[in-house]
Amino acid sequence: MNVQMHLIQRAMKATGLGSYSDLASRMGVTRQTVSQWKSGDVRLSDDRIVELAKMAGDDPGVWKIAVMGEETKLVSLQRSIQQILRQVAPTLALCAVLLVPGAVIGKGQVIQKVSGPDSGRMYIM
């Protein structure tokens, strides 16, 4: 399963949305757009990653890192990002259980901005 699909499913489960059409309506996009995100044919924008992560109750920075890791062609970078995510995932699961929905722990700190048209940010949790 690709990262985008996993994020979409988490957002739907957390919000109780019963169909991809419901998700599309909530996000103001077409069902076809959601289908393209699910398949990975179309990359989620940073804003959409943030929107879905908030719906899921997760830290958007972790999802951005996961998407970056999936997109990169550098095997060593993929491995590093996967290792970071494995270490962070238990903490996210614990936070999801302990926090009241909508509560905010704090904002991530930007440590590097990638230059280029698809600029992204990496966060310290």
List the helices and strands and how they pair.
Blueprint: H1 3-15, H2 20-27, H3 31-39, H4 46-56, H5 60-71, H6 75-98, E1 109-113, E2 121-124
Antiparallel strand pairs: 1-2
Give an overview in words.
By secondary structure, the chain is mainly α. It has one domain (3-124). The protein is built from six helices and two strands; from the N terminus they run H-H-H-H-H-H-E-E. The protein has a two-stranded antiparallel sheet with strand order 1-2. Strand 1 and strand 2 form a beta hairpin. The radius of gyration is 14 Å and the shape is globular. The two termini are 25 Å apart. The model is unreliable at 93-125 (pLDDT under 50).
Strand order of the largest sheet: 1-2
Mean residue pLDDT? 75
Percent of residues in β-strands: 5-15%
Helix content: 55-70%
Order of helices and strands: HHHHHHEE
N-to-C CA distance: 25 Å
Q: Any idea what the radius of gyration is?
A: 14 Å
Q: Helix- and strand-based class?
A: mainly alpha
Label the overall shape. globular
- Uncertain segments are 93-125
Give a quick account of the main beta sheet: strands, pairing sense, barrel closure: 2 strands, antiparallel
Q: Count of DSSP E strands?
A: 2
Tally of helical runs: 6
Tally of discrete structural domains: 1
Structural features:
mainly alpha; two-stranded antiparallel ribbon; 2 strands; disordered C terminus
Summarize, please:
This protein has 125 residues and is mainly alpha-helical.
